[in-house]
Amino acid sequence: MDAALDVVGIGNAIVDVIASADDAFLLRHGMPKGAMMLIDESRAQAIYAAMGPTVVTSGGSAANTIAGIASLGGRTGFIGKVRDDALGAEFRHDITALGTAFRTPAATSGPATARCLIVVTHDAQRTMNTFLGACATLGPGDLDAGLIQSAQVTYLEGYLYDQPLAQQAFQEAAAIAHAAGGKVALSLSDVFCVERHRTAFMTLIEQHVDILFANEAEAMALFEADDFETMLLTLQGLSELSAVTRSAAGSVIVSRTERIAVPAAPVARVVDTTGAGDLYAAGFLYGLTRGAPLRACGDFGSLAAAEVIGHFGARPQVRLDELLAARSV
Domain count of the chain? Predict the structure, then answer.
C-alpha cells in the first residue's frame, strides 16, 4: 500500500492536568489507585481545586501514540473532537505543531474540551479522572474519510468506545480503512473499559481489528483467563497480530505462528507511568509501517515507553528519532 500517512489515530482529544499526591489523597477523594474514572464537570472542578501544583499538557491515549510516532519521524493524522475554547485551541496547537494532520472542526456549542486530572503517587502509578466533554460527541459524521484512506494503519482508542456514536464511528472507520487496503489497530486502553465492553470488544476484534494492543491485565480481563499462558493461546487464535505489555517484564508479541518475548528498555528512574502503553504502541507501529521485523517493532516500543516513564507527562520530552539513532550507532 502506497500511503501518504503511516498512522491516523481516532480518539479522545484531551488536555492532561498532572500532579503528585500520596495514597491518602486518593482515599479522601474515593479514587481507586491506578484506575481511569469518568467524571462530570462539577467533580472535575472539585478535584482540580484539591490538587497541588500541576503540569498541563495535551493528551488523550491515541493522540499520545500519534505524538510518539511523529517524534520518531512518522507521518501521522488524528481525528478527535474539541470545543472552540482555550483548551481546545491548546490541544490543536500542540498536535499540529508535531506535523500531524488534524482537520476535525471544533464544536461551536455543547460541552467544553475534555480534560484528564491525573494524580501520580510515589510509586509512579497514575490515577486518572476524565471529564470527556466534547470528546463524547464524536460520531460517524466527524470521520475524515480522506485521512483514513491515506494511512497504512487506522488506530482506534478503546477509551472512546464508551460512547455509542463513537462505536458506530469505529465500525465505519474500519470499513473505510480496509476498503482502501489499510490495517486497523485497537488499544484496549484500560481494565475497567474492557469489563464494560468485553462482548462488544470481542466482536469488534473478530470483525474489524488486525492489530491489538493491551497490557497483561487488560488481555486477561478480555478473555476472563486465569493464567497468562491460557490468555496467549486464546489471543493467538483470535487476532492476526497482538502486542501485550507487561511493565518491567517487557512485552510479548503474538502472531498466528509465533510468539516473541521483548525485554523492557532500561530506565534510570520511573517517574510517571502515564502514557507508557501509548508510547509502546507508537514505537511498535512506527516499526511495523516501515516493514521492520516484529522483534524490532517491540524494541522500538520499549524504547519509546522507557523515555516517557522517566518524566511527568505522556508525550516524549526528547526526540525519539534521536534516541533511536543513538542506539543504532
Answer: 1
d(CA 327, CA 329): 6
- All cell numbers assigned to 275: 502514557
Phi and psi, residue 272, nearest 5°: -160, 120
pLDDT 10s digits, 160-209: 988 889 999 999 999 999 999 999 999 998 898 999 999 999 999 999 99
206, 292, 303, 329 from 326: Cα distances, Å: 39, 18, 11, 5
**CATH code of residue 292:** 3.40.1190.20
| Contact indicator for 66, 76 with CB cutoff of 8 Å | yes
Domain containing 134 equals 5-328
pLDDT, tens only, 85-121: 988 999 999 999 999 999 999 999 999 999 999 999 9
Question: Which positions ≥6 away from 329 have C-beta within 8 Å?
Answer: none
